Amino acid sequence: MLTALQDQSIGNGINSINPYPYFFRSQYNLSDIWKDIKRETDIFLDFIESPDSTYLNSALEKGGVSSVGRCRVDPPHGWKCFDDMTNNHIPSVVDKIWDMWSLKGVYRNMTESWINRHPPNATTLEHHHHNVNVAICAYLDVPEGSGNLEILNPFLTYKYAEPVDDGYEMPRQDHWIQIPVKTNDIVYFPGWLKHRTGVNNSDSNRYVMTMNVTAYGMTNIDRGYDEFNNAIGFVE
Fold this sequence. Notes:
Blueprint: E1 8-11, E2 14-16, E3 24-27, H1 30-49, E4 61-62, E5 65-66, H2 83-100, E6 106-118, E7 123-124, E8 134-141, E9 149-152, H3 156-159, E10 176-179, E11 185-189, E12 195-197, E13 206-218, H4 225-231
Antiparallel strand pairs: 1-2, 3-11, 4-7, 5-6, 6-13, 8-11, 8-13, 9-10, 9-12
């Protein structure tokens, strides 16, 4: 049986209990790496926006540009400058998440990654990461006022059974929850969680690197695959 995380104060002597944690944050010194690769990354993203590019920009980008079309060709998590983050820092965090989500014994792999650039007034529209266990956003450069990560309340369906006030969805959009982010933050959440970015209301570009961690094989069953599949009728 799992144990809930430590209570967190929300003021006035009230504590919030988080029995099923699904959203996490760590910090990593991305700033120093970003200073060294920003120029080359901008050239790379400029090319994706150009008519000559064979890699299409994402349809989810409204005013921005994403390298998601190259997410398996030249994924940035494989760049040498991110070696320690990819092979040490992030796995140490995902190890703990894997245990909390009862995924012990399930193999995993970082399958793809990309970088998004949001100039002023740009945003990424609502989406989720299909078949991804852990979606990861590493914030390379977040100017003040450039927008937060926004997640859709995963209990939204149940909210419809409650007598919420008239402004819940419109105009307040309380079914969307802002997650404040800053440079050097890395956030982790399940791929099924719908999310988007806030509009960049600053005068500078905002950069975020996104990674997907996906399970690809189970070792937490005692029997071999052939015996298991035969038992449930998948193999004749």
